[in-house]
Amino acid sequence: MKVILTVPEFIGFSLAIAFLIVLASSILYMDISKWVAKRKLNDQTALEISQEEKELELLRN
């Protein structure tokens, strides 16, 4: 059984595949952006905690 796509069908199929690729990449980009933002927030919080511990140590001495 031979499947022959006409030009409009081929263009439509190509556009559908391109749309799915763009959709998948945008979802991945959003997930990675959320992960990076969460990591930066955790790093900032850890830095603030360590600074507070250093200040308490200095006050004790």
How many β-strand stretches? Answer: 0
Q: Mean pLDDT score, rounded?
A: 89
Helix vs. strand class = mainly alpha
Q: Helix content range of the residues, please?
A: over 70%
β-strand amount: under 5%
Rg over CA atoms: 26 Å
Order of helices and strands: H
In whole angstroms, the N-to-C terminal distance is: 86 Å
Query: Which blocks of ≥5 consecutive residues have pLDDT under 50?
Result: none
CA-based shape: rod-shaped
Largest sheet: none
SS element count, helices: 1
Question: How would you describe this structure to a colleague?
Answer:
The protein has 61 residues and is mainly α. The chain has one helix and no strands. The termini are far apart.
Features:
61 residues, 1 helix
Summarize the structure.
This protein has 61 residues and is mainly alpha-helical. The protein has one helix and no strands.
List the helices and strands and how they pair.
Blueprint: H1 7-60
